[in-house]
Amino acid sequence: MSLAGSSLVTIDDLSNGEIEALFSVADEMADSLNDQSGVCQGKIMASLFFEPSTRTRLSFEAAMLRLGGRIITAVEVGATSLAKGESLADMARVVGSYADIIVIRHPWEGAAKVVADYAGIPVINAGDGGHEHPTQALCDLYTIKKERGNIEGLKIALFGDLRYGRAVHSLTYALARFGAVILFPPSPGLEMPEHVLRKLTTEYKGKLIRLEAPNQQVKEGFFPLDAMYVTPSSSHQLAMLPDISIQIELKKTGIDTLYVMRLQKERHASTEEGQELKKNYPVVDKKLLKGKEFKGTIVMHPLPRVDELAYELDADPRSMYFKQAARGVPIRMALIALLLGTKEIAISKEADSFVQKVDYPIYDRDSGVRCLNSNCVSNQETETRYIKPEFKIVNLEPLTLRCLYCEREVHPQYIASSEWHQGMLETKKYHSADSHWIRKIKPENLIIFDSESEAGAYGFKPSSYIAVHRRGR
Ligand code: NCD
């Protein structure tokens, strides 16, 4: 099987078998970094970084140069025609005709998907807002494998800003697919978004256990867990224990990896919000790592660090973050070569057992729903000329739509059916989304509205239930 011509927008664009195969190419690259200059000779990589970056951009560029390819680059929106109001789609088409592969980092969630949809060449997402950062997850997974041998059954804690940290979103999906037990100790107020947690149980079919009163447990010297994911493949004994026993059990059996994130202050709505969140932000230092559960833990961080990871840990043999960053070069060399088709790999089908692609019905009518995430690419003025909101219908009760671009969820209030009303304008009725009608209307006939005024604007009248309910209010 070949990855030639494909893009990497989300970590789920690669199957487990493909990730394993990519790691073996990365091993090959790491063993002879200086002998790869024939692999991508004559190829050009466009490196488009519209947000600050040191590691990701320079390791991608170093990777392409080591492969013998060349680079064209743009690092600021202000220096490109995007600043003149050009759309991402137009930019993608044009850059796609200049280069052989595009690497893009952009502050809008879903931007990499749009570029991949229009470029006509492979596109690699190097971070799209607070959404995903799949190549960081590849470096992380590779490091865990190198240091621990295997991922299945490992207890891996993701610590800090889980809300806005795109690297931990991609990593969570990858870890779930490889069968890790994932522990979520967020900084207060920065919990893992609901859409990420939902995917764990719907796409990866594991069990999500929510723990109570995490903050009280910090005071008692326990690790501040608020949720835990256990894969379907292992009936892990932790899953059977009541909350407090989980904490005690972790002390006994140890945490294999502690993955730390900095506070993503550039994604907060206001500096005041950022200040407030900073006050309670955890610090990983010698004192914390004295805890019994961290005796054999490896400490990871995608970097850059700010105040959350003490410099005193740099000499500690458990610290892995600089090694983790160095591995970015062979991993990205392997990825570029595979997507350009200058390397081929054999993929083991066996390793694919954790992939569970779910085919959700798509909602893409012009009327009705918009993504509520103001940072989503589908809400940007330059992009709405050609993008219309599209969603996966991921749940019916309650009705839950997942934006196709940023994956945030919306819970619309009103529904109707196209089937029953076609040609009969006077009988067009809308219903409450939590009524029994949600089970009656076929997905292909479903019409969804955010509000009653929206339903009204499309010529629909309230069902008798809604009308009665309204009068009663
Ligand atoms: C991460 C990112 O940009 O999302 N950094 C990186 O790519 N190494 C994490 C971060 O900035 O905190």
Q: What does this entry look like structurally?
A:
The protein has 473 residues and is α/β, with parallel strands linked by helices. The chain has 3 domains: 11-132 and 326-340, Rossmann fold, CATH 3.40.50; 135-319, Rossmann fold (3-Layer(aba) Sandwich), CATH 3.40.50; 362-471, Aspartate carbamoyltransferase regulatory subunit, C-terminal domain (SH3 type barrels, Roll), CATH 2.30.30. The protein is 33% helix and 16% strand. The chain has 17 helices and 18 strands. It has helices spanning 16-31, 55-66, 88-98, 111-119, 134-148, 166-177, 194-202, 214-219, 243-253, 271-279, 286-289, 321-326, 328-340, 418-421, 437-440, 452-457, 464-472, and strands at residues 44-49, 70-74, 101-106, 123-128, 155-159, 181-184, 207-210, 227-230, 257-260, 298-300, 362-363, 391-395, 400-403, 409-410, 414-417, 429-432, 446-449, 461-462. The strands form 4 sheets. The chain has a 6-stranded mixed β-sheet with strand order 7-8-6-5-9-10, covered by helices on one side. Strands 2-1-3-4 form a 4-stranded parallel β-sheet, sandwiched between helices. A 4-stranded antiparallel β-sheet has the order 11-12-13-14, with no helix packed on it. β3 (101-106), α4 (111-119) and β4 (123-128) form a beta-alpha-beta unit. α2 (55-66) packs across α13 (328-340). The longest helix has 16 residues, at 16-31. The radius of gyration is 24 Å and the shape is globular. Bound molecules: N-carbamoyl-L-aspartate (NCD). N-carbamoyl-L-aspartate binds next to α2 and α6.
